[in-house]
Write a structure and sequence with these properties.
There is one protein chain. The chain is an alpha/beta fold. The protein has a single domain, classed as Metallo-dependent phosphatases (Purple Acid Phosphatase, chain A, domain 2, 4-Layer Sandwich). 27% of the residues lie in helices and 22% in strands. It is built from seven helices and twelve strands. The strands form two sheets. The protein has a six-stranded mixed β-sheet with strand order 1-12-2-3-4-5, covered by helices on one side. It has a six-stranded mixed β-sheet with strand order 6-7-8-9-11-10. It is globular.
């Protein structure tokens, strides 16, 4: 009987350590890519608040400790209307910290029956949403391209009015768009792929997520002929609320 109890306890512990702990064991991934701006940008991607195990208070502590110059949100907040009050608690953190925040939408946000409710919530908390548009910030131009997977991306419109005389930083949700970008950029931040979430061989054969992950590119920093891009592993989960060999991540980009 005791051996059976120990066996069950061991299995429960294994499942927790292997699949549950990585969802709550938040990592601040630090990326140094010198653009000469001297800025710290905190990227937070893929909230999926209906499955998020990182609390608003914990996120607030990260922001207070790291003291970024900007926070960039790269989409997928929630697809459930009933979870908007929970999402609002996270947006309130940014208002309290007083850091400028810019955002784009993700494919799950467009699955919400009324995506306008997320748009309004972002506006309520003075989070500037970029939907195929750009804004000039000190030392660089920030370009927000709407979600590629949802068919909302308008690349030419996004880059309209920008130039190569200043740094061009892009935020978007689905990194697959880099295979279609023929505009030069200095740095691009995306999410969407969760670092694979379940780090298993041939995962993207069973769950196709576009050409990029099929090529073995689903996290970290990479380059194309047009610029350098980074794919965040994200802070939340989609589908099953588990991760395997992939920790939750927020990313501090030192540029």
């Amino acid at each position: 009987m005791m051996e059976w109890i120990l066996y069950v306890a061991s299995m429960v512990l294994f499942v927790y350590i292997a699949f549950i702990l990585p969802t709550a064991w938040l990592k601040v991934e630090r990326i140094h890519y010198d653009l000469g701006l001297g800025k710290k940008i905190l990227q937070i991607s893929d909230f999926h608040v209906e499955r998020l195990r990182i609390t608003p208070r914990r996120l607030q502590r990260v922001i207070e400790r790291e003291r970024p110059d900007y926070v960039f949100l790269t989409g997928d907040y929630t697809q459930l209307e009933r979870k908007l009050p929970l999402l609002e608690r996270y947006f309130a953190v940014f208002a309290q910290c007083g850091v400028p925040v810019y955002a784009v939408l993700g494919n799950h946000d467009y699955q919400l029956r009324k995506v306008i409710k997320i748009v309004r919530l972002l506006d309520d908390y003075r989070i500037q949403l970029l939907r195929n548009e750009s804004v000039r910030l000190p030392g660089f131009q920030l370009i927000g391209i709407d979600d590629f997977r949802s068919g909302k991306s308008r690349i030419a419109k996004s880059f309209e009015g920008t130039n190569t005389e200043q740094r061009r930083i892009v935020i978007t949700h689905d990194p697959n768009i880099v295979l279609h970008l023929q505009e030069s950029y200095d740095y691009l931040m995306a999410g969407h792929l969760h670092g694979k979430q379940l780090n298993l061989p041939f995962f993207y054969r069973f769950r196709p997520m576009g050409k990029l992950p099929a090529m073995g590119i689903y996290k970290g920093m990479h380059k194309t002929a047009y610029g350098t891009y980074y794919i965040s592993k994200g802070i939340g989960q989609t589908g099953l609320n588990i991760r395997f060999m992939v920790r939750s991540e927020v990313t501090l980009h030192c540029v």
